Amino acid sequence: MDQVRTSKSPNGIRRPRTILDVMVAETSPDDWLRPSEVAAMFGISVGTLKNWRLLKKGPPYSKPSARVVYKRADVDAFQLARTIDPKERVT
User: Fold this and answer.
1) 40: in domain
2) How many domains are there within the chain?
3) CB 78 within 8 A of CB 60
């Protein structure tokens, strides 16, 4: 049977680790972006980014708790997939 991981809070009480704790522990903090950071990268508002999530047209995201986070690699791939080469002509 799997053992539940716990962490110690500042007051000494042990509590189960959240999914976000595990995600951050297994990756570098620089690997995760907040919606405000992603919106700034694309030059759009946070509201537009939220609409993209609702319309399922933006970059992949995770919602391990009430907060939305984006993996930097997913955002970079999303942006790269939409790169347009002006030398290529669409016929």
Assistant:
1) yes
2) 1
3) yes
Q: Is the pLDDT of residue 55 over 90?
A: yes
Token pair recorded at residue 49? 């980014």
- pLDDT tens per residue across span 6-48: 555 566 666 556 665 665 566 666 788 999 999 999 999 999 9
Is 57 inside any structural domain? yes
Contact status, residue 51 vs residue 35, Cβ threshold 8 Å:
no
Output the six-digit token pair for 67: 């907060």
Q: Is residue 56 part of a domain?
A: yes
Task: Work out whether the CA dihedral 58, 37, 43, 54 comes out positive or negative.
Answer: positive
How far apart CA 31 and CA 68 sit, in angstroms, is 14
Q: How many CB atoms lie within 10 A of CB 33?
A: 20
Alpha-carbon distance of 52 to 46, in angstroms, equals 10
